[in-house]
Each structure stands twice: as C-alpha cells, then as structure tokens.
UniProtKB/TrEMBL annotation:
<dbReference type="Pfam" id="PF00378">
    <property type="entry name" value="ECH_1"/>
</dbReference>
<comment type="similarity">
    <text>Belongs to the enoyl-CoA hydratase/isomerase family.</text>
</comment>
<dbReference type="InterPro" id="IPR001753">
    <property type="entry name" value="Enoyl-CoA_hydra/iso"/>
</dbReference>
<protein>
    <submittedName>
        <fullName>Enoyl-CoA hydratase/isomerase family protein</fullName>
    </submittedName>
</protein>
<dbReference type="InterPro" id="IPR029045">
    <property type="entry name" value="ClpP/crotonase-like_dom_sf"/>
</dbReference>
<keyword id="KW-0456">Lyase</keyword>
<dbReference type="InterPro" id="IPR014748">
    <property type="entry name" value="Enoyl-CoA_hydra_C"/>
</dbReference>
<dbReference type="InterPro" id="IPR018376">
    <property type="entry name" value="Enoyl-CoA_hyd/isom_CS"/>
</dbReference>
C-alpha cells in the first residue's frame, strides 16, 4: 500500500493528485506534509497559471487515514501538533497559493477531503460524488481553523448538519448550496475540469493573482479571526473516553457506544 501527493505540470497547468491505494486517498500524516511541500513549490513556478487538484482511482479523498490515529491522537500536544503544524500548515499553503485552484471531485469527499476542496477556488464534481465530515461517529470535533474554513465554503446550515448529525450529502445538494460550480456525469467530469482549467490559463495571469490576493485578504478579515480564542483549549479532548471509543470502534468495524 502506497500513499503520496503527486505533482506534475503540463504547459501552464499543474496537477496535484492525492493517492492512498486501497483507502480512497485518505490523508496520512506524510501526505499532509507532502501537500504543504507541493504547494510551497508551486509558489516558485511563475510559468504556471492554474492548478487542478484531484484524487486517484475514482475518489477525491475519504478523510484522514484512521489507521494512524491511535499512535498520536490521545495526547494533547501531539494532537495539537498534528492539526496545527501538519493539517493546517498544508491547508494554509493551499490558501496562500496565488494560482487559481480547480477541484476535480470524484467519489468520496469526506472530512480532510472536504477541507482540501474548500481551499480550491472552483469545484466541479461528478454526479456520484458524496460529501460529509462524519467525525462525530469517531468521537471528536473538527479543529477550529478547519471548521471555519469548511463553514465558509459550504455554508452554516450544511456545516452544522455534517458535523452535528454526521450527514452525508450528494453533489446536487452541494451545488445548490453554492459549494460546487457544476455537477457532471462521472464520465465527463475530467474533460470538463481540464477545459475549465485551460480557460483560466488563457486569461490574464496577473489579474488572477490579484483576485486571489483580494480573496485572501477578505478571508483573513472574516471567519478565521474568530477561531483564535478557541485554540488554547481546542485539543483538550485528546484523552477522553468518547475520543478513544470512536476511533476504537471504527478500527474494530463496530458501532461506537457513546
């Protein structure tokens, strides 16, 4: 089993691909670090004009790789370091990217996948794509910065439903909420994403970078500022019974008992 975040370039386009064979591209800790490195590299390639973000094998990203969780999630400082120094650092690198980002969303887009997609400027999905963040079943909340990011992208009502009721929604519901630009037949998705990325790449690159800077400034002035007071105690749940039971139940393939 291999996992990676791949990067290839083709003319003015870059393609970032999430890959975790057999796990629907669930994000490992190493993949979060690679994602950050990939987007930091993209910042130094001025010839590029657009980035397409997608997954391998018919899925976008099914969330975090839960098989790793028992090794670090039950200690406060390790949990804090994971979310702040690995996950958020990668998402922040995506948000800081001056290039337009287009998400190609197939299949599962859950948890971490939803966060990665939320960093993209334009999102297109196949009609069979599914969206959610059912971590309530695992006994833990979404980290504050990540929750603010998702809430800002999908809207308050859907964010609350996904996090409080562990609901999973189809692509049309996410399009109606404004999260997706278009929903396409699965077989047509990749071609349309490529066409859309090429349309962006044919336009004025300096204007695109200035627009991205404006969006970034507006975001910084908005929801992210509200999470600062929460960070001091955000990871105190690390060693709670609910947290341990949720992850143990998932790994044992049984319903959790909360």
């Amino acid at each position: 089993m291999t996992s990676s975040v791949g990067l290839r370039t083709e003319g003015p386009l870059a393609f970032v691909t999430l890959a975790n064979s057999g796990r629907l591209n669930a994000m490992t800790r190493a993949m979060w670090r690679e994602l950050r490195e990939v987007f930091e590299r993209l910042a130094h390639q001025p010839a590029l004009r657009c980035v397409v973000v997608g997954g391998e094998g018919g899925a976008f990203c099914a969330g975090g790789d839960i098989s790793e969780y028992p090794s670090f999630r039950f200690e406060v400082e390790q949990l804090r370091a994971f979310h702040e120094d690995e996950v958020w650092a990668a998402l922040a690198a995506m948000l800081a990217c001056e290039l337009p980002l287009v998400a190609c969303i197939e299949g599962a887009c859950m948890g971490a996948g939803l966060e990665i997609a939320s960093c993209c400027d334009i999102r297109l999905a196949g009609e069979s794509a599914k969206f959610g963040a059912p971590i309530a079943k695992l006994g833990f909340p979404m980290a504050p910065r990540e929750a603010a990011l998702v809430q800002g992208a999908i809207g308050d009502v859907l964010a609350r439903d996904m996090l409080l009721a562990a609901s999973v929604h189809g692509a049309e519901r996410l399009r109606d909420a404004g999260f997706l630009l278009r929903v396409l037949p699965d077989a047509e998705l990749r071609a349309e994403v490529l066409a859309h990325a090429n349309r962006i790449a044919a336009l004025a690159p300096a204007a695109a970078r200035l627009n991205k800077a404006t969006f970034a400034a507006l975001r910084q002035a908005g929801a992210q500022a509200g999470v600062a007071p929460l960070l001091a105690t955000a990871y105190d749940y690390a060693d709670t019974a609910e947290h341990r039971e949720g992850i143990a139940a998932f790994l044992a393939k049984r319903p959790p008992v909360f």
